[in-house]
Amino acid sequence: MKVLDLRCAQDHRFEGWFASEDDAQAQISQKLVQCPICADHAITRLPSAPRLNLSGAAAAPAGRAAAGAQAPGAAPVTLQSLYMKAVKQVLAQTEDVGERFAEEARRMHYDEAPERGIRGTASPDEVQALAEEGIDTFQLVVPAALKQTAH
Ligand SMILES: [Zn+2]
To answer: Whole-model pTM above 0.70?
Structure first.
């Protein structure tokens, strides 16, 4: 398991979990990696020193200096842990409908299926089509580690 610090074009920072360095490179170049905050696909890896922000609140003077070097107002650790928590919650409270996601979302919208929380995969086109029909979806990047425990 490789945890890398990533950044999108909007300067959102987040962690990506990958099987290996090569896997990370492949997923980023194939635009399989998405910013969890703005869904941007223009992801770059932060150049080294990636662990500095994880010293977090413990804040020895050196740690504080490192934290100060982060974008002002950014709280990567807190955001990250909140995000992980949210993802876990979503996984626990939704039904996995896999590739039938768009279909199920539509059926619920038109009262053909019971209203409930669902998750699954959808192409950008499907998401767009759903949005045009007034069906709200939101995108979630589920770290591989959580995916494994969810099944
Ligand atoms: Zn972003």
So the answer is: no
